[in-house]
């Protein structure tokens, strides 16, 4: 395998949420090393984070532009190879573009950017750069999400007729929640979150999961979005009907005001010969219901021989020793490390991976735009294809 892949990070300072998860995930399989970072909008906090992580002082940077220009001056066997972007949404576009222009691959958290137009601009930059761009849609990286995709892809459920996906959260259910954490305050601010609140934040995860499971694209949407909690400028709850490219139909609900809920993302896919159900709060089991047969519960585990080999390879423990969110994130990092190695050595990428690409980012933000537009127009149907180009 050779030397570790070198990673730089933007965001993820003291008190941040997802940056620390990314770092644990990147480290889990020993293939990636964090060597540089600009961790915070607050220079002192960023320095403290870098010091606690044991980085060389000269590689803890005060701005991401400084990081990119200084790292680009280092020898090619020493400089960062890719940048993990874990800032609030408004910085995804400028940070990703600056990283690509400096010659670094990008692995960004979702959404790809804060509006559809920005995401299309980013797509052009990715294409121009010839570099790798990945999105961390975590839930597609659980082993059983990959198994579900394989079962559907082989046609075991027959034609897909209906999909129901729901992502209820409860952490923004009350007015007082809006300013209770920095995570909440930027998510409800249009200047930092973007054109949508809940649908961009977690509706995009649900959208991605539908497309990942079914291997199809959501092509039309009809939606009803609302802001339930007083005076929020962006949606905090919504529901949509959608159509898939091959004729199936579905419903997607996403809400951050469902009191008591954590991260209850769940999905059912119904085909003519069978159905399956998966939920991220119990990610190590997948229900499979085939016509005329008892319900089967597939379990995740490196020793589960009935799982596809590529799925077992995404498990690190035998069944019954549960893996979770960090390990799912680590699957994305392991896939991305392989993509970087293949890119470096001009080799074809062989694995069926779970890293979202820029086109998935565009389709997700097109879905958000279509849902917003539909909701403003008495929930009329909106076709998404015109937004993709
Ligand atoms: N994939 C997932 O499951 C998942 C889960 C949570 C969040 N996210 C995404 O991750 C991103 C971050 O979310 P979060 O909840 O961790 O936010 P957060 O507010 O906890 O952390 C953001 C971090 O970015 C830093 N930052 C802001 N401006 C910066 C700058 N100019 N330079 C360097 N650092 C800067 C902040 O100081 C902070 O440390 C969001 O885009 C969110 O949508 C994804």
Task: Give an overview in words.
The protein is an alpha/beta fold. The protein has two domains: about 5-140 and about 355-360, NAD(P)-binding Rossmann-like Domain (Rossmann fold), CATH 3.40.50.720; about 155-315 and about 360-375, Dihydrodipicolinate Reductase, domain 2, CATH 3.30.360. The protein has helices at about 20-30, 45-50, 65-75, 90-100, 115-130, 145-155, 180-185, 190-195, 200-215, 310, 325-345, 360-375, 385-389, and strands at about 5-10, 30-40, 80-85, 105-110, 135, 160-170, 220-225, 235-245, 250-255, 265-270, 275-280, 285-290, 295-300, 380-385. Strands 13-12-11-10-6-9-8-7-14 form a nine-stranded mixed β-sheet. Strands 2-1-3-4-5 form a five-stranded parallel β-sheet, sandwiched between helices. Strand 1, helix 1 (about 20-30) and strand 2 form a beta-alpha-beta unit. Helix 4 (about 90-100) packs parallel to helix 5 and helix 9 (about 200-215) crosses helix 12. It is globular and about 65 Å long. The mean pLDDT is about 95. Nicotinamide-adenine-dinucleotide binds next to strand 1, helix 1 and helix 7.
